[in-house]
Protein: ZP domain-containing protein
Organism: Onychostoma macrolepis
Amino acid sequence: MGIRNSRPTDIRRPAAVMKLDLSFSVWVLAVGLLPLVRITAGSILGAAVNIELLDQDRSQPVRAHYSAVSSLPCPALDELCNEADCMNQLSSSPLTGALPSPGWCLHQWQKNIPKHHTSALQLGSDRAVPLHSRANLSVRADTNRVNQPPFVALPPPVRVQAACPQEIQVNVMDLDGDAIRCRYKKTELGEFLQLNEETCTLLYEGGAHLGQYSVLIMAEDFPSSDSEAESFSTVPVHLLITVESGAGCSVVPQFTGVSPAGGAVIHVLPFEEVHVNITVDSRVQSVSEIAVIGPPGLFVSPMETGQSFQSSVMLSWVRGPNQFAHLLPVCFAANTQSLQSNIRCIWLQQTQTDPLPPGTELKCKERELQMSLVLPISFLENLHFPDLQLNDPTCPVFYNSTHVTATFPLTGCGTKTMHLGSELLYTNTLRSINPNSTISRVATLILPLACRIPAQQAKGPAFKISIPEEVKTFGAVSFWLEFYLPGKGPMADKTQTRSTDRMDMLDLHVFSNCSLARAELMVGRCVESETEDFTNSRPLLNQGCVSGNGTVEILTSTSTVRIFRLYLGSLEIKGDTMYVECVVNLCVTTKQTDRCPDPCMGTPDPTIVDSIMTHSYTVRSGPVSLIKVTETSATTAKPQSATPVAQPSTGQVTTAAASHPLDTGAFWVVAVSLLVFMRLP
């Protein structure tokens, strides 16, 4: 079956679903769908390639920036790209999400490629995903410059309800202002998705079978003045769309006014920090997560649930020295257990700056806590020097016939302090502010100023660190397990689901009574057994990762509570009773912006301690009845005692006594003392 370039006239829709506007100009049938059986460990859930041109004299003239979403457990980079020139762009822990089960993580890397190139991404025995890109290296007649290929954004994994129509936007951007059209890579199968080639919008009409469907789309740029011309370049995006069952076509979560509009562009100067608030309103189901895909180094705060059915996260990103693409997409969507909001994408555009002239000096005086600037004025033509000011306009900026100078404290004049990886970063900006609102020919200047103080691990006898005792940090803590039917118990608002006549689901609640702010409950391993002695057991969790399709974590905003939904049919439990045993511990980070390491993501760097953990404790439930007696039946099992089964995870730290008695109030200072800031050369 071929592609049709006109709008279909006979499309069947379920009677009880919303109507969608089909007044777009060019709709084609989605015939590039490859149905998959199920998501398995290591499946590729999405991928995209963006390309930028390098110097013309290079043997590989194009730099490709790869993004790939895979299911948990998170694979190593060499499983996705095993070639020697693959450069990992991971600057911290990868971005992750929980839905669809068993969860996912994001990998990003780059490599130099020829102008025509096809990469085949493959994990395990899954079908390889071909990603073809094409760049035009010739000079364009209309701009007298080499063409800039379009950029395509990779969204979080896409979820739709089987019976409900939904639009899926493929977000694209072109810095040349060209027209962008999208097409399918293949024309082989399917007929339940349509693609608007001009707006790059997928329309799901409803009626598909449950499962996952692979879609490979090519985005191409064309000259705006000639719609019949050939495309300049091509970039691919691969989507894995999960079709799920749902009870009716409910209103999906909606973004509120404080959230950025889709397609917004934020210009980012060097060493500038960007903050983005994302807030959603969901009145049908509680939000399980706000899934985010973004550039390396993007920090996503823990989700906060407030009143009026709203949930929010804060995104922050610092532009440090990098080799990322000039245009960086950030895409996000709100997930409930059965619904997904519309996906929005914004763009971070890294503003390109001119090189500073010879004779420019910027000194970071760490001892004096000052920054000083000497800037020749020879290149500052038509600049009104009295208008120059720092972040704080009351701080003086001096100038004469040859130079502009300024000396200001790192703790004043509007200087901002932030962390960039393991570095401490002080930033300010020298800019010209024209007090006149009228348009003039007077030049303007925006000059970012930054002092980067790298961290170095403390060594030698002068640095003897002792970790505070567990009870001094976390207090006297206990752990216990409780079981409830979905929608029951103390976290009922987080676990609501449809009613059923038989007990096919049970929610395992893991609790700790720790009152320390920011303490996180970590669940490493859980097993179930049909006997109290656990002679024969089956895994529910393994190193924090859900095991198989029988366990799904339900996210909450309470850091000392973890909830796992057990699908009893998938677990194949025999008999009417089961017992559960879990290994748990508590963790707290040394920096407020960090999260404790996820054991499902692998072992963290042992040379740097950025979190403190308790011993590991084994906690067991009593007998859990699997027979549904009443709607309010629940099983609670509190252990008689919780005994350590492992040594503290911070055992690699020297425990020699400090020169002064350890004050529990100095916990943060002691923990951070492992990193000593050194002066820049």
Q: What stands out?
A: Residues 1-38, 460-465, 631-681 have pLDDT under 50 and may be disordered.
